[in-house]
Design a protein that fits this description.
Distance between the termini: 151 Å
Number of strands: 0
Order of helices and strands: HHHHHHHHHHHHHHHHHHHHHHHHH
Number of helices: 25
Helix content: over 70%
């Protein structure tokens, strides 16, 4: 190739001169650029030679450097011009290509639409000539599907979609049996893959999977048998699921289905969910079998806890493939849910057995001993029940405990009421028996108050997410029951409204026991005093004319009546008798609940105070207004009053206001000196 001659530009040339020269040439841009580069290199060589000459001739170095800089600038300008020209040329070529491609695509789309319409019309015509129940030929249905997919890229016609789906329904209706026969054939994999291909071409893969799933559900019916324990029922079912899972996975399933592990797990899960009644029956029968050997239900409650623990452990660390483990876990969750239908009955029955107190003696002392032992046992068993329910179900256990405790309290109220009427409402009740009854009542109230707090704590934590996965899932299943449970709660912290009423009734009975005990402890004092006062006051309105003023004994020489001194001595003796109960915490609880105190420091003093009040009330009520009494009687009564006041002072008991006011009446009448 001949060398390209680079023109000599005028002294004041610019870029336009260079561009005009490049555009005037027919050679490729690259060739021009190389020619320019060669010219530049030649110029540089010439410059270097000139520089050497200048160096040799010791000319001014500044002029040479300026020349080099000018050449470098020229080179950069040339490169910039050439690059700009190349980009403009390429851009024009790309625009032309884009326009061509767009036109080509439009033409292709138009051809595609026309061909699809033609295919649609032709295949529809074939179908319309068939009998209404006769399926269309396979190639016709497939061509129709392809035509529809091509047309649906550009426009949506619902009528075409409906028509196509009906055609596919008729065509595929014959394949359900073919799928089953293919599964049962000697070459299930090959036969099923051919059929699956047709379903995929017709976009009916889901229908294919549904038929397979339905077949697997029918061929793998799970039987849930009555077991000795719920954990055995869970483990046996797990083994049964794993056996079917592995057997199918090792066969045609793995080669035909896209995601065989998940598919089998979902199929088994749906099958299990359709057998809810069978699972519930197996659960109920297993619990029933346990109760045959465990009438109290204690071991049955432990059995349910054991199953829940096994389930929680499996959910946290399943040993099986995660897909089938999901199916097994759902079965376990449903089985645990089934136990909740039985749990309240179990707890109620267990507590009822403990609270069904019968007495094999007619003697009050012996019956009180039996009652005390039964109450102690009941407290232990109820604590056991609360612990078991909380360990089994967490805070959800409160919704099973409340109905059981409601029945328990109602039963206790009935028993206590009957016991009171039989043994405590008699005239010959002994002091120690009445006091023992109060102690038992205090024991009951302490237990009930503790239960109230424990149930309240469980309720307050009811909405808290449980760490245990089994309990957390159960909470979701019981959301409706939990919501209904919340609606029945009182706002005063007592929890369930019916429980609050039962507790209030037991507190009311405790007050009755204490009031009756005060009557029993003070009955001799009050009875003798009442009889004595009534005896000396038979003629209280008539002056005793037999006793003359000269023979009257001064007040300081008058002694208290015997029944009054007897009452004082009896009160002092009672204080000693009651000292044996000074450390009785149950009796203290009964007093605290009845009197609404924070605490009681001295139990004997509290009883003495109540008996002293009874004596004061008896004295005040029987003496009444002294203004109509004889001076002799008033003097005697003032002596009796003073003696009693001294006794109350020694005992440290409180005087009622009417008793205090009576002293003023004696002072006003001149029988006592002012304080």
């Amino acid at each position: 190739m001949s060398k390209i001659e680079i023109p000599v530009f005028p002294e004041h040339w610019n870029v336009t001169d260079l561009v005009n020269w490049i555009n005037s040439r027919n050679e490729p841009i690259k060739t021009l650029l190389e020619a320019v580069e060669a010219e530049i290199e030649e110029a540089q060589s010439s410059l270097v030679e000139t520089r050497n000459k200048i160096d040799r001739l010791k000319h001014d170095e500044g002029n040479l450097e300026q020349c080099v800089r000018s050449c470098a600038e020229l080179r950069e300008r040339l490169k910039l011009v050439v690059d700009t020209h190349a980009k403009e040329h390429l851009a024009k070529e790309f625009d032309a290509i884009a326009i061509y491609d767009k036109a080509d695509r439009r033409a292709a789309d138009l051809i595609k639409i026309l061909m699809a319409r033609k295919s649609w019309r032709e295949n529809v015509a074939i179908i319309e000539n068939l009998d209404g129940t006769e399926p269309a030929p396979e190639n016709v249905v497939i061509n129709l599907q392809k035509a529809y997919e091509s047309l649906s890229e550009f426009l949506d016609v619902p009528e075409r979609a409906d028509f196509l789906e009906k055609v596919k329904d008729v065509f595929l209706s014959w394949f359900s049996t073919r799928i089953v026969l293919a599964i049962q054939s000697e070459t299930p994999v090959d036969d099923l893959l051919l059929i699956k291909q047709k379903y995929e071409m017709l976009r009916r893969t889901e229908d294919f999977n549904d038929i397979i799933k339905h077949y697997l559900e029918n061929e793998n019916k799970f039987n849930f048998h009555t077991a000795n324990k719920l954990s055995d029922l869970f483990i046996d079912t797990r083994d049964m699921i794993i056996s079917s899972y592995k057997r199918l996975l090792d066969g045609w399933v793995e080669k035909v289905l896209d995601d065989p592990n998940v598919f089998l797990s979902n199929a088994f899960t749906e099958s299990i969910l359709t057998l809810e009644k069978e699972i519930r029956d197996a659960c109920t029968n297993t619990i029933g079998r346990s109760l045959e050997d465990d009438p109290s239900g204690s071991q049955t409650l432990k059995m349910i806890l054991e199953f829940r623990s096994v389930l929680s452990q499996y959910m946290s660390r399943p040993d099986d493939d995660k897909s089938v483990a999901k199916c097994i876990i759902q079965f376990g969750e449903h089985l645990l849910f089934c136990t909740t239908n039985q749990y309240t009955k179990l707890v109620a029955s267990f507590l009822a057995n403990c609270s069904n107190i019968s007495f094999d003696s007619t003697h009050t002392f012996a019956c009180l001993e039996q009652l005390s032992n039964k109450v102690s046992q009941l407290i232990r068993e109820s604590n056991y029940v609360v612990q078991m329910a909380k360990e089994t179900f967490g805070n959800i256990g409160v919704i099973f405990l409340v109905p059981a405790f409601r029945a328990l309290y109602e039963n206790l109220i009935s028993i206590l009421d009957k016991f009171y009427k039989t043994h405590m409402d008699r005239s010959n009740v002994k002091d120690e028996d009445a006091l023992r009854m109060v102690s038992i009542s205090g024991q009951l109230l302490t237990w009930i108050d503790n239960d109230k707090q424990r149930l309240k704590d469980m309720f307050e934590q009811l909405g808290t997410a449980a760490a245990d996965p089994a309990i957390s899932k159960l909470s979701e299943k019981l959301c409706s029951e939990i919501s209904n449970f919340r609606k029945k709660l009182s706002v005063k912290g007592e929890g369930d409204i019916s429980l609050a009423k039962a507790r209030a009734e037991i507190r009311k009975m405790n007050k009755r026991f204490i009031a009756r005990t005060v009557e029993v402890l003070s009955r001799t004092l009050v009875g003798d005093m009442e009889n004595g006062l009534q005896s000396i006051m038979l003629d209280k309105s008539v002056e005793n004319t037999k006793i003359k003023e000269s023979t009257k004994v001064p007040s300081f020489g008058t002694s208290p009546n015997e029944f009054v001194t007897a009452a004082g001595v009896a009160l002092l003796s009672l204080a000693h008798q009651l000292s044996t109960y000074s450390q009785d915490s149950n009796m203290a609880s009964a007093i605290v609940f009845a009197a609404k105190l924070e605490t009681v420091d001295d139990i004997p003093s509290w009883w003495i105070s109540k008996c002293a009040i009874a004596v004061q009330e008896c004295f005040v009520d029987n003496v009444g207004d002294i203004s109509g009494y004889s001076s002799y009687l008033c003097r005697q009564l003032s002596v009796d009053y003073t003696y009693l006041a001294d006794v109350f002072e020694d005992l440290g008991t409180t005087k009622i206001s009417d008793f205090v006011n009576m002293r003023q009446a004696f002072v006003s009448a001149g029988y006592l000196e002012p304080l």
